[in-house]
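Progress note, project year one: complex with flavin mononucleotide.
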Amino acid sequence: MGDILDVITSRKSIRRFKSDPVPEDVIDKVLEAARWAPTGENYQPWRFVVIRNQETRNKIGDLAKCGSGSRMTAWYCLGHMQERFEKIEDPVKRAEVLRFMYSGEVSEFAKVAPVVIAIAGSLQVGSVDVPYDLSAAIENMLLEAHSLGYGGCWVHGPVASSRDAVKFKKILGIPTAMNAYKVIAYVAIGHALEQRRHPRPKIPLSELVYWEEFGKTTRPKLELKDIVSYEKFEEKGKK
Ligand SMILES: Cc1cc2nc3c(=O)[nH]c(=O)nc-3n(C[C@H](O)[C@H](O)[C@H](O)COP(=O)(O)O)c2cc1C
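Model obtained:
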């Protein structure tokens, strides 16, 4: 079996797309990848709505813009946004980036993504695991699209509040009853318009991983005597 770490580490969120359509077989493969994601108790609660219609994508883009805009305006008012982009030295450029973020334009790109795939989780079929199931499916979709040479982005913007989630469902004809479907995002897919600088800064493992106990950063030597063989484990269970 191949190591897919190169696929994983070279993926990046793409928000600017060429207008070329995404071939049908690519869409099918992306959906196929989603179908194979792990899912709590194998419920497979996911349902996918593939959207290419321009008018529908415009509505989703507007909703995502409002959702992201209200969230980021709050961060801007609290000063977090300014902190996040303080490394941009040119004040004009910094102001433009900030405006792009708090206006919500950052999440408007469904309008120019050739394909948008909305992911809805059936709360009747699924369990408490539905949001995790959907997240696993989304990651599979992004990785498959990337491995096929397409760019994609996970967009939570249009479902940032429960009111927006209802609007999102209405746009797509997803039943809006509270206990029917959970919508957590859509995925935009297309040919990347340009190569973005990558990788995005990621926190090194040395700052993320602890060994045996939270906070312990030193990797202990593995003692083979500590490992219980499956046979012994099974034997114990039978007793
Ligand atoms: C749960 C989740 C929600 C996200 N929502 C949005 C969004 O609404 N708009 C957007 O432009 N990007 C969104 N993204 C993409 C992230 O901004 C992106 O993954 C992050 O900045 C890291 O960049 P990278 O994917 O290029 O590594 C979301 C990603 C995740 C996992």
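DSSP finds eight helices and four strands in the chain.
Strands lie at 46-51, 115-122, 151-155, 181-190.
No further modelling is planned for this target in the current period.
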